[in-house]
Amino acid sequence: MTTDVVAFAEVIRIRFRKGEAKLPLLPKAVLEVQKIIQDESKGASDISKALEASPTFAATVLRIANSPEFKRGNYEVRSLSMAVQRLGGRRTLELMVAISAKLHMNVKDKGLKKILDQNKNDALHVAVAAQHLAQIIPGVEPEEAFLAGMLHDIGVQAVICAVSDLLGPLAYEDQISIIQSLHREMGGRLLNYWGMPDAFESIATHHGIESDDRPRDKLIDFVDAANFLVQAHGHAVLFDPVPDIDPTHYLPIQRIGAKETHLAAIEIELEDAVRNMASALS
Question: Coil, helix or strand for 236?
C-alpha cells in the first residue's frame, strides 16, 4: 500500500513541534570553534588548539587547506595554525559544519544510510561545480559557493536523523518522496539551530524553487546553476531534479551570466575536481 506522503510529512512536523524529533547536534569541536570565532581576543592559534583535540577534524582541515580547490600559492602548509590562517577562521568553522553535516549520526538502517551516502556524493558534486562556476564568473567567493553547495540540502540529513524510526519501515520510493517534501523546511531549521549565517539558511530553504519569496541572492543562483550542470553532465541526484531544458534557458544560469563556454569548462573539470575534494574530505 502506498504511503500518504502529505499526511506522513505532517506527522513528522508534529513530532518536531512537540520536541519528539531531535535535530542532530554539532560535534564538541565545532561548538568550541564557534565560541572562539565569537571571541575577538582569540585567533588562528586558538582554533588550531581546539582542532588538535579532534584528530578527524584536524586531519581533514589540513587536507582541505592543501587541496587544489583551496590551495593558494605553491607551498604546502604543514601546521594546523597555518591551515586555519590560509582558510580563515570563519571559513574553517563553516567547513567543519559542512563536514559534520555529512556524518551518519545515529542512523542504523542500511537503506537510510545508503540514501545519506548518495546525498553526500550529490552535495559534493554540486559544491565543486558551484565553486568552479564562481572561479570563472564574478559574483560570489568560490569558497563560499563550495560551502553553500555542501549545505544546500542538509535537510535530507535533518529528516533522516530525526525520524529514522518512522522512515525505516517504508518503501524506498516513499522514503524519497517524504524527504523531498520536507528537506528544504528542515534544512533551514537545522542551519538556524546550528547558528549558521542567514545566507546558508536561505539556500537550504529556497534552493531549486522559483517563487515570489525566493531571496535575490546570487549564492542561491550559483548553487542551483551548479545542480543543473551536475545533472546535465549525467550525474543522477536523489533530490531536487531539474527541468529537461537547454542549460542556457535555466533562470539561475541566466542570472549568474554563465555562457556556453563557462558550462563547457565546468563539464571538463568536474569529475577530477570532485575526486580531489572527495579525497580531501575522506
Answer: coil
Q: Which residue has the cell 604546502?
A: 76
Q: What is the pLDDT along the chain (282 residues), one digit of tens a residue?
A: 467 888 888 888 888 888 888 777 788 888 898 889 888 888 888 999 888 888 888 888 888 888 877 776 677 888 888 889 888 888 888 888 877 766 555 688 999 999 998 998 999 999 999 999 999 999 898 888 998 998 999 999 889 988 898 999 999 999 999 999 999 999 998 888 888 889 999 999 999 999 999 998 999 999 999 999 999 888 999 999 999 999 989 999 999 998 888 888 888 888 888 887 777 776
Give the span between the Cα atoms of 50 and 167, in whole angstroms: 36
The angle, 0 to 180 degrees and rounded to 10, between the axes of the packed helices 80-87 and 55-65 is 60
Of 21, 3, 13, 7, the closest CA to residue 161 belongs to 21
Residues of CATH 1.10.3210.10 domain(s) within the chain?
1-24+106-282
Instruction: Check: CB of residue 142 under 8 Å from CB of residue 256.
Output: no
- What is the second-level CATH architecture of the domain 1-24+106-282? Orthogonal Bundle (1.10)
Phi, psi (rounded to 5 degrees) for 185: -55, -50
CA dihedral for 81, 82, 83, 84, sign (positive or negative): positive
